[in-house]
Amino acid sequence: MAQDSSQEKHNLAGVKHTVLVLSGKGGVGKSTVATQIALALKQAGLKVGILDVDLCGPSIPRMLNVEGNDVHQCAQGWVPVYADKDQQLSVMSIGFLLGNKDDAVVWRGPKKNAMIKQFLTDVFWGDLDYLIIDTPPGTSDEHITVIENLQEYKADGAILVTTPQAVAVGDVRRELTFCRKTKIPVLGVVENMSGFVCPHCTECTNVFSKGGGEALANQFSVPFLGCIPLDPQLTQSLENGQNFLELYSNSASAAAVRKITEGLLKR
Fold first, then answer.
1. pLDDT digits (tens, 9 = 90+) for 80-94
2. Three-state secondary structure of 213-246
3. Which of 7-16, 135-144, 225-234 has the highest mean predicted lDDT (pLDDT)?
4. H/E run at residue 117
5. How far apart (Å, rounded) are the C-alpha atoms in residues 134 and 53?
6. Residue 214: is its pLDDT beyond 50?
7. Which of 53, 122, 179, 218 could form a disulfide with 77 if both were Cys (CB 3.0 to 4.6 A apart)?
8. Are 37 and 264 in contact (CB under 8 A)?
């Protein structure tokens, strides 16, 4: 047990800031927000890691075009996969450990928890400015495992992702309650899919209404970091594993991501 604790201290000691990306609702775009914030932080000259603990839906490798890579071992543990040649953005995901990308992870809670703990203790991140942890939806065992194993390192807090609809906002409201019960600081709320940006005229239409995320943030007196609109170019970039912020740097969605990231850096 002492050896495990020592290894964890060694592998997380070089991480300056740890941020969880949470939501009580599936399909709101947590992984999209996590990857875009990570890319924006990297664009700002910071060294960033992404830990994908969504064991049943590991989408981060595809979004960052590192699908199919292998994880290697070093004396300190697992070496994360680098998403860029400068090794400024590193990734760890269960997706790298599956024999086939279409394999389902059919595990009970204890095995999931052991895998998440191993990710937190055995991955040799080295020196990082930010570690972004992309979590599954809900308030389940996986989240409690992450929080318990990060207690010694006092994670900066959580970004909560919602879409504007009342159903999604209701589920994220429960996630806010979870954060308060587990004493995780809430760094802010992001409203994703907030309007549709036409790729031709750039006009934004509020397909799913608007303002739910901001109203939730105001209700709980937590920061509102901003809105990211539905954007076909962002969707296509994620599908192709391309860097949206570089390809469409002048788009409204890229500006929204940069604004959210700037808000995070001020916390």
1. 999 999 999 999 999
2. HHHHHHHHCCCEEEEEEECHHHHHHHHHCCCHHH
3. 225-234
4. helix 109-122
5. 6
6. yes
7. 122
8. yes
Residues 34-78 have pLDDT tens digits of 999 999 999 999 999 999 998 888 999 999 999 989 999 998 899
**Are 123 and 78 spatial neighbours (Cβ–Cβ below 8 Å)?**
yes
Q: What is the pTM of this model?
A: 0.91
CB atoms within 10 A of CB 33: 23
Query: In angstroms, how far is the first alpha carbon of the chain from the final one?
Result: 34
The closest alpha carbon to 12, from 113, 135, 150, 134, belongs to: 150
pLDDT at position 148 is: 83
Can you read off the two tokens belonging to residue 60? Answer: 């981060």
Q: Report the distance separating Cα 28 and Cα 30, nearest Å.
A: 6
CA distances from 155 to 11, 16, 18, 199 (A): 15, 9, 5, 38
What average pLDDT does the segment 165-179 reach? 89
